[in-house]
Amino acid sequence: MNSKKSWLIMFNIFAILLALFLIGRGWQRRQNTQLSGDCPDLPLSKIKEPDAISITLKQGESKTELIKQNGAWQVITNEGGKPADEEKIKQVLLTLSTAQCGNLASANPSHRTDFGLDEEHLLQIEIKNQNEEITKFWIGKVAMVPQTTYISQPDSDKTYTLKSNVRTMLTADYNDWAKKEEKTEEQQNP
Question: Which InterPro entries does the entry link to (predicted)?
Fold first, then answer.
């Protein structure tokens, strides 16, 4: 009788663990993005680093403008233009242009707060190319799936997942885009 009871307890524990495993896999499968290339509403593949001439980033009250003048990127400030970190800009543009769109996260605009796409948290991005074509989109918070972020457009109710770590690269603080001045040996060792 005792061994039968032990066997029944072991079977129940196994059944519970199996159920938890299967539920977890189903949840993970729903969270994983099935990459589909370009989001239908978001023409990210149009973004090409050599063609880009301006980038505007806005989050809340913070706004940064990056403009390419005479082949060099500048961060526009109240005092005028400062040299920008061109490698960072190239990396961001490359990351955006090669990012793969995942599934539709929601078609309901009332869910935007859940994705960090509400007015307080979203990062508005506008990229203009040499042909004066403008690509506008919003970046939300990092999604639950690693290296995935939420993305939408101002004139669309749809929110997609984007397989990219681009959110961690973007900020509306102009200091993060300015070229870091290298200290001379004298400045390093006074």
Answer: DUF4340
Collapsing DSSP to helix, strand or coil, 75 comes out as strand
Tokens of 68: 């390419």
Tens of pLDDT, residue by residue, the chain (190 residues): 577 888 888 888 988 988 887 776 554 444 443 444 446 656 676 777 777 888 888 888 888 888 888 888 999 877 778 899 999 888 888 888 888 888 888 888 888 899 999 888 888 888 888 877 788 888 888 888 778 888 888 888 888 888 887 777 887 777 888 888 765 555 556 6
The CA distance from 108 to 114, in Å, is 11
Q: What is the pTM of this model?
A: 0.68
